[in-house]
Q: What sequence folds into this?
């Protein structure tokens, strides 16, 4: 087995143990049993349990991100890319039981704000994916002009809010249906275009007449 495959297998076994027992209770022996390895062999891949935990979670987050990016790249239209990105990101976590359980146990992995983000480099890449889609959409004229410095971060924060509400918060409840409604709002807005044009076409003189 190639070393890269070994690493992936080790990280997945570590995730399984941490998901089942939590970081504090899981031991390197628990992880080694899942792999048919000794605890001593695990030290060849990580200096301690904390480092293995961080690396295993990072590996899972990159897998999640990679699956979403692959789905996005199969689409041509930026509008389809945006929809696929948002929905696949939510749907993937619903299927990754280990990562979802770890996020529920350790919400600090996925904080709302970047000043305490232990995986800032990975999450910054997610923001960059959003920004790239917005750039393409504006260039092709299918998105209106937006502020690329702030909007990608705002959209990622909205996404995080749903992840926390759906999978991390003990209350739960904010599931895919509500996420779809929010996605509809983001992509289509709540103002009717014909209503906006009608309001703009009404002159101040017309408004004055109506009041009398």
A:
């Amino acid at each position: 087995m190639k070393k890269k495959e070994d690493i992936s297998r080790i990280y997945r076994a570590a995730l399984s143990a941490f998901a089942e027992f939590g970081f504090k209770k899981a031991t390197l022996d628990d992880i080694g049993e899942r792999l048919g390895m000794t605890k001593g062999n695990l030290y060849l891949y990580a200096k301690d349990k904390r480092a293995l935990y961080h690396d295993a979670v990072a590996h899972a987050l990159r897998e999640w991100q990679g699956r979403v990016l692959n789905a996005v790249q199969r689409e041509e239209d930026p509008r389809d890319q945006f929809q696929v990105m948002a929905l696949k990101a939510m749907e993937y976590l619903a299927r990754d039981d280990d990562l979802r359980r770890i996020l529920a146990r350790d919400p600090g992995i996925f904080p709302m704000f970047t000043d305490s983000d232990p995986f800032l480099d990975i999450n910054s890449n997610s923001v960059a994916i959003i920004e790239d889609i917005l750039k393409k959409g504006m260039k092709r004229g299918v998105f209106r002009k937006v502020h690329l410095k702030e909007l990608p971060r705002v959209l990622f924060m909205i996404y995080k809010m749903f992840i926390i509400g759906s999978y991390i918060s003990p209350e739960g409840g904010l599931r895919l249906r509500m996420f779809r409604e929010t996605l509809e709002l983001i992509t289509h807005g709540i103002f009717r275009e014909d209503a906006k044009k009608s309001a703009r076409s009404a002159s101040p003189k017309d408004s004055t007449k109506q009041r009398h």
Observations:
- The mean pLDDT is 87.
- The first helix runs from residue 3 to 25.
